[in-house]
Amino acid sequence: MYQYNDFDKAFLAERNRQFRAQVERRIAGNLTEDEFKPLRLMNGLYLQLHAYMLRVAIPYGTLSSKQMDTLALLAEKWDKGYGHFTTRQNIQYNWPKLTDVPDMLDALGEVGMHAIQTSGNTIRNVTADHFAGAAADELEDPRPIAELIRQWSTDHPEFQFMGRKFKIAVSAGAQDRAVLKAHDLAVRIVQNDAGEIGYQVLVGGGLGRTPMIGKVLNDFLPREDLLPYIEATVSVWNQIGRRDNKYKARIKITVHETGLEEFRAMVEERFESVRQSFSGIDQDLLQDIKAHFAPPAFRNAPTVEFDRAYDTNPLFRSWVDTNLTTHRAPGYAIVTVSIKKHGQTPGDATSDQMRALAEIARQYGHDELRISHEQNVILPHVHKSDLPAVYDALREADLHTANIGLVSDIIACPGMDYCALATARSIPVAQQIATRFDELKLEHDIGHLQIKISGCINACGHHHVGHIGILGLDRAGVENYQITLGGDATWDAEIGQRAGPGFAYDEIVPAIERLVNGYLELREGPEETFLQAYRRLGLAPFKAHLYPETQANAA
Amino acid sequence: MPRAFTPKVITANALIEGDVIYFTKDDTWTRDLACAEYLTDEAHAQVRLLEAAQQVELVVGAYLADAAEGENGPEPTHFREEFRRTGPSNYFHGKQAETQQQDGQAA
Lengths: 555, 107
Hints:
By secondary structure, chain A is of the alpha+beta class. Chain A is built from 19 helices and 21 strands.
């Protein structure tokens, strides 16, 4: 894991000192809110419906136990005892006081964390595959590149006041677990025919009001060209991107309006001059960073305890079958800890749970944790012989829900329970869907199904790429929920199709139940997932289940 | 034709705590919507908003929110304002909890 050096520490301390002074000047009346707002946003501080909200970056989703302990401390000391993990691998605190935020930032600084550029029209927290460094299907650990991009983009003078925000994701897996195609820019680590490792760059993806799938801007870049190429791309967009209309300011619109070929030509031209300004120091830095991400010392040990527990404890077996992923090291497993207990708020963990996770990682997980964009916590390196003990410890902390990838593993944005931009609630819809399917005891039969809920058109809940997407809107002063079907967040990324008229708040859960029951009738067998059935059959038969009355009327 | 004016209250967030507050008749701020000044005249509402927004050392983002006259004072007409005066639905936090605390203290 990356450890801050003296430069990083001094930079952060100075930045926090500046922000503390800005808060003081705001309170003293020497800064107006208009002057203060961009400064607080650049430090992750929003003003939401009921209170301020501090968004803390968890770069590429990676945390040490000590860092997780500090996140727990913040929740306990300055908030209401919990934090909310988000779809961009951040954590949000919903109740801080303005006067406490500088202390919170100092506490984060102690463990090499910050809230810089988690908001504002800047390059945001760089996200990555949450299984990075552990997945069996990856070419190399993508996090050194993510860290390099984080360092390059932090306080980058050219990119502090752009037309809009800019989101970057990095992955190296054969499978895309980081929703690369929904990012302004994405880096995919690839291998060319000559066996060399390089980077494929995608551009112009994004959800929100105009959802678009990212396109390949460059198929293969040698290592030393990556940073200047990204800089050229952001620079071209920053120059020609629209500033007349906030809703047309993202790079996806620029690429769409300019045309990919033309945009690529402009980037190539800019790249020629930007490249001159890179002396190669970024590659030296990358070598240093790589050393921080050396894999842990994996041990060779028998797995008899695991086998015994698996054969004798059906609850453990169910959890293993649902929440584990193949690790690249023999005898190891990747554990996904569900932060989606049925009826709870997706992505919310209490201080006690965060501390329990930190302790488990310390004892059994090489001191490492990850936050996934799916709002779960990952223990990336656990030896199988430790899994029974890990499971017991998770049970103690009420973190043992076996539902990863299932219908109750729902992504939900904070919605109108917290967010000032929201047009409807998301959290209670997620809670009720999860509770309902738990009552029905159907979710393991239903199999892999991703429901994603956003409380407004901005799509923080990724509803466009949910197999079932739910979008909460305000229709004439009443909450109304639109359903989209067939979205996909993987390499085969697809934007879901709108199913038809929306549903009222008290109709949405029964509608989802009808839809899922419909799928169970329509599928060819348990091995055909919801998405596969949808792709085979199209919208019509699912619609018939969603809108039975319309169907009856037509008959 | 311009839309007919509907009654309003002035609401904002407190600068330090960030919580929801309402402007009163005597130019102070209350955390209880029922104690807010109920504005039925458009021109008067605009003037009051200007006056409220001038208190920059206390508040952020003052605006006019639709309201209706209730038994105990102004009440929200839109669900967003209902959530703002209550708190989130997933935890008993925010105003709903604070009101209970105050009631407890009073009793």
